[in-house]
Amino acid sequence: MNQESIGIIAGSGQFPMLVARAARLEGHRVVMCGFQGHTDSALEHEADVWSMLHLGQLGRLIDFFVSAGVTRLCFAGAISKPRALDLRPDMRAAKVLFRLRSKGDDVLLRAVLAELESEGLVIVQAAELVPGLRGPEGVLTRRQPSAEEWQDIRYGWPVAMQIGALDIGQCLVVRRGMVVAVEGLEGTDATLRRGGELGGDGCVALKFVKPGQDERIDLPALGLATVRTLAQGGYTCLCYQAGNTLFFDREESISLADKHGISIVGIGPALSAELTAAAE
C-alpha cells in the first residue's frame, strides 16, 4: 500500500508538531512548509519533506505541495497578524488579493483555500488528526461560574457572535455587562492583557468561532499561556466554544486555573444557540 503524503502549512506554536507526529503515527509521510518570522525552523525535524518560505509566496507554496505528491493538506499553528501586514505577495497571491473586496481573516483565508483546491489539494481540518485537542463541553475547573459571571456570559456571547460575523476577532472581554476589550490584529493574549488592565479584577473572557467561518482553518486556541495571562490580569472566568476550540496542555492549564480560582467552561452548541437567541 502506498504511503499517503499529508501536507501541513505550519505557523507558530506546538500545534504543527503535534499534527505531524499524529500523522506519522498513522503511517503517513509528512510534508511541511513554514514561514520566515512565523514558524520555528526546528520543525524541520518533524517532517519528511520540509520547506521554509516567505509569507505571500503562494505560487511556490502550491508548487511545493503538488510536487511532493500531497493528497491532504491542513493548516496548523498561528500566524502573527501584525507581521502579516508586511507580506510581499508573489504574482499568484497578488491576483488573489486584487479580487478581494475586503481583507478580513476569513475572507482572505477562504480565497487562499480556493487557490489550493483549484490545484487538486484537499483541505482538511488539522484537528481531525489530533481530536483530543478539542475543548470539551461543560465546566472543567473545580469552581463553577458565579451568578454574576453567568450574567456576563449571557451578555457577552451574542455580542461575540456579532463581532465574529463581522470577521473582526475571536476573543471578547466583558465585566458587569460592559464590553471591555475586543480582539483585533494583536491576538488573544494581548487582548486579554489589555482587558485586564482596563477592566480590573473580575473580568470574563470569551473565546469563540466566527459564525460562518470555514472551520478547516484558524480555529480558536487556548492553552497554558492563556491561563497564565488570565491569572496575571485578575480574570475569574473563561468560556470558550466547545468542540471547535483547540485546548493545549489542558490538564496543566486546568490545574493552574484551579490554583487561581478561575472558572473555565466550554459552551456547547445547544447552550450557544440558547444564549444567542435570548438576545434577539
UniProtKB/TrEMBL annotation:
Domain LpxI C-terminal, residue spans: 136-265
InterPro entries: LpxI, LpxI_C, LpxI_C_sf, LpxI_N
Protein name: DUF1009 domain-containing protein
Residues annotated as domain LpxI N-terminal: 6-133
Lineage of producing organism: Bacteria, Pseudomonadati, Thermodesulfobacteriota, Desulfovibrionia, Desulfovibrionales
